[in-house]
Design a protein that fits this description.
heterotetramer; A: alpha/beta; two-stranded antiparallel sheet; 12 helices; B: alpha/beta; Rossmann fold; 2 domains; 5-stranded mixed sheet; binds thiamine diphosphate; binds magnesium ion; EC 1.2.4.- (chains B, C); Transketo_C/PFOR_II (chains B, C); oxidoreductase activity (chains B, C)
């Protein structure tokens, strides 16, 4: 953690905490009703999104998944704009046309959440063709789950990236489940990293509940990409604190599993302990952020609830630039 | 007869067919669920819409097969198993996912019989959930069936109610050709009278849930109940319509449509899909070429707009053709 | 003006656009060829139909990118590069291969702008070879464009001659939306007058290569030259026709079709695709709903049969609509 | 080679020689004209198809590729029926509707050549679900080229086979090229076998120009599958003696490459030398087969050329069982 300045630590904590509270609050609001569609929460996996994106800036691109809120916040998307989008409001980040599974903000280098599992990696590979040609040492990264790691599009993207030696990183988040199916069943290989390594790129594994472990592993891969060393894969073992989507009865999980994970594998708890033990930050610093974040989320929910729905006339706009 | 939901009717058809014929298997993502989970419970899902619930308990994991997220492998494995003598029912969780497995559907399964000179058959059923109405957004709400209706070699089924869901799924499983079976996700909870026991509905025979004199309405899937609402709402204006539910869009029962048109002279076609190369324009085109003489006025097409499916409630509601728009089109057809 | 083949016209458009705009790149299988070969020669292929020949020599392998056989990655990379500021021209070797990359075309590239509230654009061009006529069999001879015309967010181009091939490809590359560009493989060697230098044809403006009084013929792609033959063959019977070549089927220039119909009152639509949910039934359906009043008789649809494309010469010849069948349909329309 | 009886050796040689002469003759006939479409010749790779199929009988299934003549002959398809199919005749194996890229014979366990690269492996995996359920120790195999090994469908098929522990074998034929592109360029990993091994199944490599090496390696994998040991991959390095299709100018190949391979990597020559050196067969035995094969091919070409085309009415038959 030495490498990280105090500001960087505070920034990372703020982002992780923002994701956590965003999702905890959504879980409540969705159960109250008022939020359309179905929503996949990222709580529990914050260290992955933030640990990876800590190495990226707006000129770098990421491609996300159906569980994209964390990636969006970590990459710098406006939290209130996101909340409004999830509520389906006219002034949401995507004018209410996308929703939870389709939040994008190209200005922040966020190429979009993606409701098609495995849809993102080919896009990140293509964005890397662009950033390399534009030649400013910019890189791209894709996020894929354990379940998504079995999708053919992801395998093709890895091979293409290796063939073209592109500046891109394949981030795999093993949260143990693909909907109702365990990763141990659906991923036939020993793990995702060894399978990725077989494609001919460096691949490593780290604890996705430890921000610093993520930060270090992702840093090595992203640095390699920036320096022209080609693509890499990083696999992070993590856990989701909620069901596959809000409303999932989770019959596939042992009764105490989530409680146990919240107890032992909470990346925010871990971070707090580590930075305090290492005398990098004081508890008060973090408590102050907790306060601000809670206010931000309250604020964003209030604004989202107060905001107007899209004009029905907009159902046919934005299909083409011109037609 | 008993009252069952569309979901229950489908589930019953699967149980009955798997009991009847040991060569029937089911495969797909979470068709049982719980494999590799920490609770040890299988059947944790029974399909994310619950249609395959309970099957693994009776038929075991050699006939009820959970798969990774690998649609090309799922559909391809179904096609290969069918060519090797089984009658697989492969679940494509959402019809929108046809994008990651289309080749195995349309270049493989659909073409085996023809390419190989009639010597190979592929009795594969692909069950898939389609349609808008649940704010699932642009990639989880499409109808898709027009794309596959265009494919020679496939049979395309779009049940609009619980009884047809059961009767058509049984026929699909017994059929020797590949069948794509489109279940509308907004209909899963819809209840209706369902014949008990063996009830198989032949393909290519349309149903006529409403009969009348002023206009012929052809509607598909969820548009059938919406059209019933629309037609019933016009009764007090003294307007009555034939409502044709094709049930299978390939093969398509044009006879009943033409017959009805001879009587009414007016046609409204209702399709939840966007307009271009839709079932709406397809049926209209067939009528304009084969039954032109019966037409006493322009054909009215009621479809979604030429746009992806939006997320927000208000936008999706405006997107999906509803009873009001259908009634409006009938009025125009009758008056116009 | 100079005489060029359809292939040469496309190649010229690529050279001109890549010179004009450094953000234009080309990627696909063997677009150069020879990578990793033992002769050391690059540009060993220049695309298997030679359309991208010579590009790597001038623009290098960072802008002319050979790929593995991974169509989802090719199209997806094109879409991602487009979202990140390039104007990629991705080659899908045969249109039939849409089956292994459809998702990236129709759920990704086509929907970005809409799903993301108009804030992302995807100026991707997908060039692909379609059509029958070379005995390539069921999986290498399909037209495919009806499937993609159904997709809101895509623009669909089907050039029928060398001049249009050049002018439409330049427009496609400059367009800010995803465009699927269908090249008929039986037309690559067809020569015609091609304007030199900058020649861009706007989308949505149909062409009328024949003008007449008795019938309106709308034909697509290779069916345009076949329809010209058919129409010319009827001249001595005193029959003359308007021939409408839409050039882009999405957007579709319905105005010109309707205008012509007002004059002729008879419509024949010619499409190399099988009939169901084809462009033929689509255009017929649009006319029957929006220009019914102009119709003086049934619309004639000339299409391939509802069957895969067969291999044997005699079968394929019987499968593809030819000048005779088109002439026959015109006669029926005019007399009928 | 000890394991192989004299009859088995004669049978293997006959099959390899039949493939060779079938393709050499097609190469000539195609250049003369009279054969529709475009045709991919298997000459040079015979040892792979025959060495694998020597372990299979009609109850076992294979899925093939666009370069399928060799797989068909090795699996027992009727040579004259194939020739007639390639000529597009009414009495071809597929009534002239399929052609060179679509020859199938399900009675021989041949699930079809396939003009979609990567189309076959998912089919073979599915057939293995069937053979296992039918429970007679039957197995399946798919053939994939070096180029096809990069297709997402093939990766998905491998993972699914591992997850379900299916009795299937993934045979990879590295003939050095994917159309005009070298395997060393398009396959990003060190080799195909190591990438397959990463999926969690046994994978080995052998010389595809040595029938006995193929026979041994394939035997191990197929035996494992029959005995319930699950899927395996085998990679064979081989070479094609002709272009990608008949008419390919092969600018991507060094001038002398093919001549050199015909000289040094001819699996038929190798076989002849090995069996004679090992005193397993006499040159006369092989010469006699050469004679018979040449007659068979002459005969099949003559019959094909003499046969009638399909009735044009058949353009719309065989689309459905009933409609
Ligand atoms: C192509 C495709 N197949 C299936 C689905 C349905 N689906 C949505 S999320 C999901 C599970 C994804 O698991 P994983 O990749 O591990 O991500 P996680 O949900 O754990 O974040 C599935 C099967 C989909 N959206 N797209
Ligand atoms: C999905 C798909 N993409 C591309 C092609 C065009 N194509 C046909 S064969 C071929 C090369 C295949 O190379 P390989 O797998 O090594 O087999 P080989 O030709 O060497 O036997 C290509 C690109 C195709 N038929 N299908
Ligand atoms: Mg997961
Ligand atoms: Mg090869």
């Amino acid at each position: 953690m030495t490498e990280l300045s105090r500001d960087a630590l505070l920034h990372a904590y703020r982002r992780m905490k923002t994701i956590r509270e965003f999702e905890e609050r959504l879980n409540l609001e969705i159960q109250k009703g008022g939020i359309p569609g179905f929503t996949h929460l990222y709580a529990g996996q914050e260290a992955v999104a933030v640990g990876v994106c800590a190495h990226l800036d707006a000129g770098d691109y990421i491609a996300s998944t159906h569980r994209g809120h964390g990636h969006c916040i970590a990459k710098g998307c406006d939290v209130t704009g996101m909340m409004k989008e999830i509520y389906g409001r006219h002034d949401g980040l995507c004018k209410g046309k996308g929703g939870s599974m389709h939040i994008a903000d190209v200005d922040q280098g966020m190429l979009g959440a993606n409701a098609i599992v495995g849809g993102g990696p080919p896009l990140a590979v293509g964005a890397a063709i662009a950033t390399r040609l534009q030649g400013e040492g910019r890189v791209t990264a894709s996020f894929t789950g354990d379940g998504g790691s079995n999708q053919g599009t992801v395998f093709e993207a890895m091979n293409l990236a290796v063939v073209l030696k592109l500046p891109t990183v394949f981030v795999f988040e093993d949260n143990g489940y693909s909907e109702h199916t365990g990763a141990g069943y659906a991923v036939g290989s020993d793990d995702i990293a060894s399978r990725a390594a077989g494609f001919g790129m460096p691949a490593e594994k780290a604890d996705g509940c430890d921000f610093f472990a993520v930060y270090e592993a992702a840093g090595r891969a992203i640095r390699r990409a920036r320096e022209g060393g080609g693509p890499s894969a990083v696999e992070f073992s993590t856990t989701r604190f909620f069901g596959h989507f809000v409303g999932d009865p989770q019959n596939y999980r042992a009764k105490d599993e989530v409680a146990h994970h919240r107890e032992t594998r909470d990346c925010l708890k871990n971070f707090r302990e580590q930075v305090i033990a290492g005398n990098r930050l004081a508890g008060d610093d973090l408590d102050a952020i907790d306060e601000e974040v809670l206010q931000l989320i309250d604020q964003s929910v209030a604004e989202a609830q107060a905001s107007a729905p899209p004009d029905v006339g907009d159902v046919i706009t934005d299909v083409y630039s011109h037609y | 007869m008993s009252i069952k939901s569309y979901r229950e009717a489908l589930n019953e058809a699967l149980f009955e067919e798997m009991r009847r014929d040991p060569s029937v298997i089911v495969l797909g993502e979470d068709v049982s669920g719980g494999a590799g989970g920490t609770s040890g419970t299988r059947d944790a899902a029974g399909g994310i819409f619950g249609v395959t619930k309970g099957l693994i308990g009776e038929f075991g994991d050699e006939r009820v097969i959970d798969t990774p997220i690998s649609e090309s492998a799922i559909i391809g494995a179904g096609a290969g198993a069918a060519a090797a003598g089984l009658r697989p029912v492969a679940e494509l969780m959402f019809a929108d996912f046809v994008g990651v497995c289309l080749d195995q559907i349309y270049n493989q399964a659909a073409k085996f019989r023809y390419m190989f000179g009639g010597k190979m058959q592929c009795p594969l059923v692909i069950r898939t959930a389609m349609g808008a109405g649940m704010n699932m957004g642009a990639q989880h709400s499409q109808t898709i069936y027009p794309m596959l209706t265009a494919v020679p070699g496939l049979k395309i089924v779009v049940p609009s109610n619980a009884a047809d869901a059961k009767g058509l799924l049984k026929t699909a499983i017994r059929d020797d050709d590949p069948v794509v079976f489109f279940e509308h996700k907004a209909l899963y909870n819809k209840k209706g009278e369902v014949p008990d026991g063996d009830h198989a509905i032949p393909f290519g025979e349309a149903d006529m849930p409403r009969e009348g004199d002023d206009c012929t309405v052809v509607a598909i899937g969820r548009m059938v109940p919406f059209s019933e609402k629309a037609i019933d709402s016009l009764a007090d204006q003294g307007i009555s319509c034939d409502l044709v539910d094709p049930r299978t869009v390939s093969p398509l029962d044009t006879d009943l449509i033409f017959e009805s048109l001879e009587h009414t002279g007016r046609l409204v076609v209702v399709d939840e899909s966007p307009p271009r190369c839709s079932l709406a324009s397809d049926i209209a085109g067939i009528v304009a070429s084969e039954a032109f003489g019966s037409l006493r006025g322009p054909i009215r097409l009621v479809t979604a707009p030429h746009a992806p499916v939006p997320f927000a409630r208000e936008l999706e509601r405006a997107y999906v053709p509803g009873p009001d728009r259908i009634a409006q089109a009938i009025l125009e057809a009758v008056k116009g």
